[in-house]
Amino acid sequence: MIVEAINRDLGLPAQFVCAANQRVTVEGTVFAYRDLGPRDGLPLVLLNHWGAVLDNFDPRIVDGLARTRRIIATDYRGIGASGGNAPLTVSEMANDTIAMIRALGFEKVDLLGFSLGGFVAQDIALRAPELVRKLILTGTGPAGGQGIDKVWSVSWPLMLKGLLTLRDPKFYLFFTATANGRKAARDFLVRLKERDKDRDKKPAPGAFMRQLKAIHAWGRQPPQDLGRIQIPTLVVNGDNDIMVPTVNSAALANRIPNSQLIIYQDAGHGGIFQYHADFVTRATAFLNG
Fold this sequence. Notes:
Elements: H1 2-9, E1 22-26, E2 29-36, E3 44-47, H2 59-66, E4 71-74, H3 90-103, E5 109-114, H4 116-127, E6 132-138, H5 151-165, H6 170-173, H7 179-191, H8 205-220, E7 233-238, H9 247-255, E8 259-264, H10 271-274, H11 276-288
Parallel strand pairs: 3-4, 3-5, 5-6, 6-7, 7-8
Antiparallel strand pairs: 1-2, 2-4
Helix pairs in contact: 2-11, 3-4
InterPro entries: AB_hydrolase (IPR050471), AB_hydrolase_1 (IPR000073), AB_hydrolase_fold (IPR029058)
Keywords: Hydrolase
Protein name: Alpha/beta hydrolase
């Protein structure tokens, strides 16, 4: 967008709500992305959750991280404005992302994966370690991790509750039922509506269910050798994640040799959204360290 370009020229902070919707074609498939922040240094590629489109990235986190680095936020194949059919496996999503990163001309990047995005980020780190400098895994878990293949049985009752109460299901799925959790949920959902023009397309139901199959397959596949990940890794979650149980974050930190673990108190799957300011500070320090 013109506003984003003017802000960059004037040295003003980047704003995700103003970032232009862009496209790159990879092996005949169009992938949607947004690009903001300074152009020097390694880009940080953001990989989001199940059913998420570009407008589901938290603007406070994106803007905070974009103060010091270039941010590339993406749509998976078959999701939002990206073309093709949504993959049925995490490995296909990882291969797509590797190809897209290379199509954008990047030889090395940092990765931040949330939930499903954390599955994809791990697979990228194992498949193309030369492409990744640092890795941030949030609200996520390893292949074969505890409870990951049960995400639908946990999610559908709260999705139904959201429908009946006229609330976004993330209000119940991503946050605790405490006063702090409920306030954080309301604030987060307001932030997701800040962009009022050129919003991304919502995911089609078929794509949503194909991604669910990929998540279930990830939860049932044999564990990967995470000891092969020699990349510095930051693992972050809330202490009460009901979607990807928090025990999986501890497992990641134990199995990835060069890793750090942050667990936010009174927080759920969306702990990084509830504690967005602290997360941006810690993530920036980790990336700059």
